[in-house]
Specification:
The chain has 762 residues and is mainly beta. A hairpin with a 3-residue loop joins strand 15 (152-157) and strand 16 (161-166). The relative contact order is 0.05.
Length: 762
């Protein structure tokens, strides 16, 4: 489990992800509704109008609306932009357990609620009336949910049954434009005034029919299946997003899997493992998994196809009550006694490594691919060539989606005659696989099967040697391409937990605590050491002269002896980075481009940084050529996006004293803004900043700073004209400062002119 965010609060009873923004809404047992930004880890807003626990909450898919239901028998609809409750829906006679907007809420403005009064209700939140009352359960209804795409509702009750309801009749009635008779229920505006739920001015029998509907329900929604099989009350039921499957969780400590057809539904299997009441369960939106949580303080992951438990995460002291899954991202959330956690089951970073020349090797699913940039056509970034299929090793590797995918990949840059790739995963504590193939016929002669255990990534240190870190003794083990151990070396420091590429033959980077150590294996010498917290990876420049150490929240750039050149910090997690390899322009091995969750940024060895562009979704940079960033997305698809690195090139040319290139960029590029001017002033280049500025006062200051008397005098006259046009008095300090600078330079003529002008102004 990868915990992305954790909150501390009262017991969390309801959770909902925002469909687009990085927000999660949590309803608490103390009556507060919290709106969190889980990326930054801050509370955006709080809503406090419910009396007692709030057990259900949901976001509208398109509108800025939140619906909540609590123990005060009220359903409240909130506008989070206006930061207030819009209205309250009244009708339930006991605690409200869950509330949900219809998945297609633009076409069907419905809210579904489940209550301890043994009923479900469907509400029209635009008309603020109750559409339908669903009766049939004879105990508390613990949850109710719409099907993502079909006219179905599932409900779970403490009467030990799961019911599936068909809403086709109600949909046809609503689509047909029939006004019908609104079922009982009502609405209360925020001013406290009640409004009846029935049709105003309806026919004479409307009241009688409403009473009948209150007692017996309406026939717009009918029960399709009643699923019996649990021995105790059912706490939760959920639809599969695409398949005709259901999952249910109950107090009998079991999770049951059900299948539906057009005419019937039946139990497929029972998943046993929890040792207390199972609170909630759901299907993973992207993988063939069921995730459940329980009052036994654990979250369990089950393989749907094999129907076995594959992972368990335990929490000391906190019982779990609720779960939610993000609609589009690989994110889950779980609420417990003292807050909530937002987490993933596995990392989404695709394993990739640069190959020789214009090639990139990466893993998609279980396939190793070679991406050839030189064969790009039709706007694509290059051509994918499949190399080999990676075998599944170990029990955990048999199930996708729980961290069994390859985590690291390393290419042997020291061997020009054949291709060698090391693929490492975290299965069974850490394993590696050596794949060898011909460079001329990549998908032809492939030899694999050379495997072993290791800790973290393995790396090549020579033409026919690679190094791995022993899991148990933390020794560096050197092996040949036949997977035979040739040497064991004790690291120079304890607590080494990863080996990274050393940038040259025979050298490796050792990660230990919060530092990186450059180590030469043959002589067993430490060549360099640098402090850097939470190092994730090392990216060497194409010429091997620099290395960028990517940390969790920063980038450290050092030379080949690990002497620090610069260090930058960021507020958001660093995702990836790549050096510029442009053949012209002087930026190769000098410009480092890195990506965060939503931005592409740059860093120069001088320490200058900046933002290049925003991203809709996280991308993993693999290569930078001129104004193109080659990258992989989370599905391991190669992409190319355009970037404008003019600002970075300008700062680089300035730092390298290439003034001809600087002036060319000044004349022909769209560089402007206060940031560039302030940067040039801070770096001691006011004469260059002068080319960017048209405002007279700023231009006057810059002209004085660089000693340009003509430009300063021109600006002084412009300021005087500006003052007279606006009817203000001229500033005597301008002429005084200009006269002093002219005198300092020995320009008596300008100095006298300034003195006379100063006297005239006075």
């Amino acid at each position: 489990m990868l915990t992305k965010f954790e909150s501390k609060s009262a017991r969390v009873k309801g959770l909902a992800f925002h469909p687009v923004r990085p927000w999660i809404c949590a309803s608490l047992h103390n009556g507060v509704i919290q709106l969190w930004d889980y990326r930054v880890g801050t509370v955006i807003d709080r809503f406090e109008e419910h009396d007692g626990p709030v057990r259900g909450v949901d976001f509208h898919l398109h509108e800025p609306l939140i619906v909540s239901g609590g123990d005060d028998y009220k359903i409240k609809v909130w506008d989070y932009k206006l930061r207030r409750c819009l209205f309250t829906l009244l009708g339930h006679l006991d605690y409200i357990r869950t509330v949900q907007f219809h998945p297609n809420a633009t076409q069907f403005p419905w809210i579904l609620s489940a209550s301890d009064d043994q009923t479900l209700r469907l509400w029209d939140f635009q008309k603020r009336t109750c559409l339908s009352l669903l009766t049939g359960h004879n105990h508390y209804v613990m949850c109710a949910a719409f099907h993502p795409s079909e006219d179905l509702i599932v409900s779970a009750s403490l009467d030990q049954t799961v019911r599936v309801w068909d809403t086709t009749g109600l949909r046809k009635k609503q689509m047909g434009g029939s006004t019908g008779l609104d079922s009982p229920g009502g609405m209360m505006d925020t001013n406290g005034m009640g409004r009846p739920g029935g049709n105003p001015g309806g026919v004479a029998g409307a009241t009688a029919l409403n009473v009948q509907a209150e007692l017996f329900g309406t026939n717009d929604v009918v029960v399709k299946y009643v699923l019996e099989g649990h021995d105790r009350g059912v706490n939760w039921a959920a639809f599969h997003p695409t398949l005709p499957l259901l999952a249910s969780a109950a107090d009998d400590r079991q999770v049951k899997l059900w299948r539906m057809s057009e005419t019937k539904a039946w139990e497929v299997d029972t998943l046993r493992g929890h040792v207390n009441n199972v609170s909630c369960c759901l299907f993973h939106p992207k993988h063939d998994l069921i995730v459940s949580n329980s009052e036994d303080r654990s979250i369990r992951v089950w393989d749907v196809s094999k129907r076995v438990g594959v992972q368990t995460f335990r929490r000391e002291g906190d019982r779990f009550w609720i779960m939610a899954a993000h609609r589009t991202q690989n994110l889950l959330a779980a609420g417990h006694d003292s807050g909530m956690i937002v987490y993933k089951l596995e990392r989404e970073r695709p394993a990739s490594t640069p190959g020789p020349a214009n090639k990139l090797y990466y893993v998609r699913g279980r396939e190793l691919f070679c991406h050839d940039y030189s064969r790009a056509q039709n706007g694509a970034s290059g051509l994918d060539v499949p190399i080999a299929t990676i075998r599944r090793v170990g029990q955990q590797a048999q199930t996708d989606g729980i961290g069994s995918a390859p985590r690291y990949i390393s290419y042997n840059q020291h061997n020009p005659s054949e291709g060698n790739v090391l693929v490492c995963s975290e299965v069974d504590g850490g394993t590696y696989e050596l794949i060898t193939f011909s460079l001329t016929n990549a998908s032809g002669s492939v030899t694999d099967g050379k495997r072993g255990s290791c800790l973290g990534p393995a790396t090549f240190i020579g033409r026919n040697r690679f190094a791995v870190l022993d899991r148990h003794q933390r020794q560096i083990i050197v092996k040949n391409l036949n997977n035979e151990t040739t040497k064991r070396v004790q690291p120079p420091v304890p607590n080494v937990d990863a080996l990274l590429d050393g940038g040259a033959s025979g050298r490796i980077l050792l990660r230990a605590d919060d530092r990186a150590i450059l180590f030469e294996i043959q002589s067993r010498r430490v060549l360099g050491e640098i402090s850097s917290p939470k190092i994730k990876s090392a990216v060497w420049s194409p010429d091997g002269s620099k290395v960028a150490l990517l940390c969790k929240y920063g980038v450290v750039i050092a030379d080949r002896q690990l002497e620090q050149l610069c260090s930058i910090n960021d507020n958001v997690r660093i995702k990836s980075g790549a050096w510029d390899v442009s053949p012209t322009g002087g930026t190769a091995s000098e410009l480092f481009v890195y990506t965060t969750l939503h931005h592409v940024k740059y860093c120069l060895p001088s320490g200058d940084t900046g933002t290049i562009r925003t991203l809709d979704n996280p991308l993993y940079a693999t290569r930078v050529v001129k104004d193109q960033l080659f990258c992989l997305d989370r599905e391991a698809r190669a992409r190319v996006i355009s970037i404008d690195a003019t600002e970075a090139r300008f700062k680089l040319a300035l730092a390298n004293k290439r003034y001809g290139q600087v002036m060319q960029m000044v004349r022909h590029s769209r560089l402007c803004g206060r940031a560039i001017v302030a940067y040039l002033q801070s770096k001691g280049f006011p004469e260059v900043a002068l080319h960017f500025v048209r405002e007279p006062r700023t231009r006057f200051r810059l002209a004085l700073a660089c000693g340009n008397i003509e430009a300063a005098m021109e600006s002084a006259f412009a300021l005087e004209q500006q003052s007279s046009a606006e009817g203000k008095e001229s500033d005597t300090n301008v002429w005084g400062e200009l006269g002093s600078e002219a005198l300092r330079q020995g320009n008596h003529q300008v100095s006298e002119t300034c003195c006379s002008n100063e006297l005239c102004v006075e």
